[in-house]
Here is the input.
Amino acid sequence: MILLRDLRYVRLGTRDLDASAAFARDILGLEPAGCDTNARYFRSDSRDHTLVYLKGDPKDHATAFELESNEALDAAGEVLEGMKRDVKWGTKDGCAQRRVESYISFKDPSGNPIELVVRPHHSGKEYFPQRAAGITGFSHIGLRTTDPARDEQFWTQVMNARV
Here is the structure.
């Protein structure tokens, strides 16, 4: 069983970085947490970031979960490969973009892109939103399913998640 430690971040592709960043900042009230030519990072709590918009195809997205250690990541990769999941091991550049020490990516049974990460960066500072938007953290997501019973079994029995 893969032991997920925490939900870490969501990566979303966008054709318009500026409009997406304005939405996250001005409508959602998220705090900007850095940017580069092709990415805008935002945080909703003390983590380094919980949302990043990437310049590109809106179909490109991923949800990341934190694992305890590199050993846990290696073991997770073995479990997923044993289940015939196409596991991709993160590169040095990929780690820098994600602000993590290491990661793997794969698709869950319904095809949702998932990343498992180790030692994500921390902001080291308290979260102060731009305005009182009611956001106090990042703890839940919704994933698309093509077979609810199968996916519930995958997420609860393989990934040790609550659904």
